[in-house]
Amino acid sequence: MKKTIEYVVLVGILILISSCKQVNEKDPNKDDVESSEAVAETTELVALANDSLSSTVPLEITVSTQPPTLESLQHDFDVFSWESFIALNWPANEDGTPNTNMVIGQDQNALTVWQSWKSSRDIFLKNGAQPKGWNEDVPPPVVCDHLNGSDFSKAQISLTQVGKTPNVLDESGEPFQTGPLIDQNGQYTRYEIFTNQSMFDYIVDNKLYNKKGQAIYNKDADFPSSSTSNDKVGAIMVKSAWVKMGGKYDSSKFHTTMALVYNNPEEQSGVKPACELVEVGLVGFHIAHKTEDEPQWVWSTFEHKDNVPTQNETADKDFYNFYDANSDMEVNEPPARPWNPAIPYTTPSQIERVIPITDDAKALNDKYHALLENAVPGSVWANYDLISTQWPTDATSVSDPTGKPAPSFLANTTLETYIQGTVEQTSSSCIACHNNASMTSGRFSDFTYLLQRAQTKK
To answer: Which residue has the higher pLDDT, 107 or 438?
Structure first.
């Protein structure tokens, strides 16, 4: 990942030097003028963005109305979600910190802050091995050994997870009906989970990355919380959903990155080893953030605006990522088994949104889209919508450990595809579902199924 950035910077410098040399031969002063204009333009963009957009992750909500109401607090949490989305998707420096000399959207393919974090495959290793340090690079999967070093240097993430299958643990809906999501190109949607350093350090320091460590720990997990009193960022998880670019997709509409997309028999029984370097586009994005006032975490979910139409509403787009107006497939039903991501083409899923986005969330989306477009015209991030935010309305409730979440149900069509709805015990609720999460030792894992990925130490 670091090599990629160094390589890109070096090439950029060489091109700039070459370009300036050619200009100097014609007009020794022209390069200085153009360079100054470019710097001025970038400085103006950064200043404009800093007035409305921030690379700083919020630590708590800002209460906008006194006394607050359920509706006003929902709005405040939705603002918190958008601020988080912008900060986490800010272009990153080599060390993963926000690059404040750039503006979100200025480079469509720039490595984002959260993409510099540790993925689940970096933490829960074969035979329960200890993860490498936060700033250490992790070698690519063995199934990708046939690729050369230059391919590895181009890859910014590795993707193997293909959905809610029995062979691959998935945080988004373990207790319910599950299955892979197939896009309109007939390709499997791929997923990955990332944790920030606060969460990573807690797992490593307490040796929760293997089953033995969890057994010795022998108590409930309690990840650090973000706090305004000490200005520290607590545990944050990001779950991302990606589709392979090409075919019916216009990659200019997506945040894209290069990824090692692979099938590993050790992680998915029944598949043949395979690995390829491909361009993928972001279609779904979950943020789970633990704060002092919300120990049940704040759950924010975003989607690409072209994912699906809403049930009982007119499908007004010519193309959706996961819906075809001419398809006779049953809506919101997982594909028939066997589920094999190695198959070149699978019949696309036919998905609709069950719970409509609220009018207030739509208005907030319009506001932030305008801010993003104002900072960088044509910003790719203006193609992403907040679906909603789930938060505890009574975080200290003795009778309800979920904190009486609002809204009661929350689903992302790429991450909880087949468990959308409003039926108790069968529909998606981030907090209610994750309240059942435990470690391999049986102890509560603090609203994350991630710790169940721990393997036996050998």
So the answer is: 438
